[in-house]
Amino acid sequence: MDLTQGTQEEKTKRAKKMMLWFGIISLIMSFAAWTSAFIVSSSRTDWLKDFQLPNSFAISAVIIIISSISFLLAKRALKNDNRAMTTLWLFVTLGLGIAFIYNQFNGFQQIIDLGYNFTGPTSNVTMSYIYLIAMVHILHVVAGLISLLVVIYNHFKQKYTPSNMLGFELASTFWHFIDILWIYLFLFLYFVR
Q: Is the confidence at residue 3, as pLDDT, over 60?
C-alpha cells in the first residue's frame, strides 16, 4: 500500500499512528538499555543476588493487566456505541492506573523498610537500578493517565464515534504498551539476578 495515497484524513491517521510507534520503539530501546545495564552490573561484587521484589510490585502487575482489559472493554463499548459503558470502563481504567502508581510507591516503601534507599549511605547499586527502572516506568504511566484524561474529556465532548476513534485508539495503544512494558520489567527484575 502506498502511504501517500488516500484522503487527507487517512494520511493524518497513518501519520499519527506512525509517530506513536516511533515513540514506542524509542521507549523500548531505552528500557532495553537499562535492563542491559542491569545485567552487566550484576557481575559487580556489591550486587545483591538474593533480593526479593516487593509484593506491591506483583500486585501492580495484576492491576495493570486488569487495566488493559478494562481499556479493551471501553473500546468495545465505544465500537458498539454504548456511551455509558464506555464511560464506566474508562473510569475503571483511570482508577486502576492510579492504584498501580499507589502500589509502586508502596513497593518503594517496602524497599526502604528493608534498609535500601535510592542514594546515600544506605543505597545499593541493585536497588538503585530497581528504583530507576520503576520510577521511569511510573513517569510513562503518568503520561498514559494524562492521555486517558484527554480521552475521557473528549468522550464527554462526544468527539469519538464508532467510526471516528483515532485519539481513543492512540491512547489505548500507548496504555497497552506501558502495561506490557511493566509485565516485562516485573518478570525481568523477578528472574534476572
A: no
Whole domain around residue 134: which residue ranges?
60-191
Q: Domain containing 112 — which CATH number?
A: 1.20.120.80
Distance CA 155, CA 131 (A): 35
pTM as predicted:
0.90
pLDDT at 2 over 60: no
Number of domains within the chain: 1
